[in-house]
Amino acid sequence: MASERFIIDGGQRLQGTVEVSGSKNAAVAAMAASLLVPDECYLENVPDIGDVKFMARVLESLGAEVERPSPSTLRLRAAHITSFSPPTEQVVNLRASFMVMGPLLARFGQAACSPPGGDVIGQRPIDVHLAGFSAMGADIRHQEEKFMAQAKRLRGARLFMDYPSVLGTQNLMMAATLAKGTTVIVNAAAEPEIVSLAEMLNRMGACIQGAGSHTLEIEGVDALHGTSQRIIPDRIEAGTFAIAAAITGGDVRVCGVEPQHLYSLVSKLREAGVQVDEGEGVLHVRGDGQLAAVTIQALPYPGLATDLQAPMAALLTQARGVSYVHERVFENRLLYVSELRKMGAEVISTGTTAIISGPTSLIGTSVRALDVRAGAALVLAGLAARGRTVISDIYHLNRGYQRLDGKLRSLGASIQSA
Ligand code: UD1
């Protein structure tokens, strides 16, 4: 049976080297992209996490073949697609499941999907995805619980995204690869996961320019072909370990990272008094236990990642002074504040801002992981707390972190799953 709780005995200073796994968000996007072709797509450096397993089930429900030759590789083949509509009970497991829409619509002219699941962190609408498909000529209907899209062949269009949605950009980019004519996406997301997907699609024969900026230009082609792709390092996992080093006053080399993807976090850690040295593929993070309060804002890339907002808040409970944490991406991503308070943190939330006074001595107690990153914040708080912290509902953490407990143990943490 999968473990349900983490038991952490806090107070250990983390030391050593930790290797970061492949990016969750880049992996699930690459998996969706395999639906664009009948040929095989081979993915390396795939994280062994819950969301990858959920996405594999979504693809299999459509008739795609998914093999895992090793724990870090995936062989995907969408040669015999038998359905254009994944079952709702699988779609609700992860929000990325909605990314099957773009590839299916572009390749087969039809797709249907329920509104996706994922973490409860705000309204998380899908209007920009649907508006984009519609502007490319798709007929969109809402039937029973599903959105259905149909188009003989999508046509290129100039699309303005109301918000630079990450999944929205990926979905529309994939749809546009096989459209007739050129698509321009204005106000596109610029996250590294967008760039890595664009690189994969271009290797499949697509013609995408501008990835990493806020304007993408995609010239549609008639067909794409299979490829292989190495998944980029998980910048959120890397950031979590960097914060773990800082919060325990430790000395940790976080390896296998792309330091330029973590610039916003590194800047804020330095401002708070943490020593961070960047090397090739490495962040060397050292904390001496003296942290200063800072203000952070979670924003679209290259701003500080919203997925690191809760972990940073855990760190700031240990900083001297008053820290302000502004969440600018999701409207309901401060629910973890009540769990941190149970541990003794002096933190209040007002709308989308948390105000933290520190430093406070955190005390271990029973808390609940409310979502994957809120759970990570509690693990970090537990590492710094006096006594024993018991975190329940850690299945959220297993969705996004590969062997989080094992990796932390290798750095000297006392963390067990039960
Ligand atoms: C992705 C990431 C998630 C990360 C988030 C923001 C994946 C699998 N997940 O989620 O880890 O926290 O980016 O970096 O890659 N919005 C709209 N209309 C839409 C879609 C989104 O208004 O149609 C709004 C949302 O309400 C939210 C904001 O856009 O306020 C950001 O959402 P989005 O970028 O879409 O996040 P996801 O792509 O779901």
Task: Based on the model shown, name its key terms.
alpha/beta, binds uridine-diphosphate-N-acetylglucosamine, UDP-n-acetylglucosamine1-carboxyvinyl-transferase, Chain, four-stranded mixed β-sheet, 2 domains, five-stranded mixed β-sheet, single chain, 418 residues
Please characterize this protein's 3D structure.
The protein folds into two domains: 5-21 and 233-417, Enolpyruvate transferase domain (UDP-n-acetylglucosamine1-carboxyvinyl-transferase, Chain); 24-230, UDP-n-acetylglucosamine1-carboxyvinyl-transferase, Chain (Alpha-beta prism), CATH 3.65.10.10. Helices cover 31% and strands 27% of the residues. It contains 14 helices and 24 strands. Strands 17, 18, 19, 20 and 21 form a five-stranded mixed β-sheet that branches. The longest helix has 13 residues, at 235-247. The mean pLDDT is 96. It binds uridine-diphosphate-N-acetylglucosamine (UD1). Uridine-diphosphate-N-acetylglucosamine is lined by residues 25, 28, 95-96, 122-129, 163, 165-168, 193, 306-307, 329-330.
**Highest CATH level, the class of the largest domain:** Alpha Beta
CATH superfamily of the largest domain: Enolpyruvate transferase domain
What small molecules does this complex bind?
Answer: uridine-diphosphate-N-acetylglucosamine
Largest sheet: 5 strands, mixed
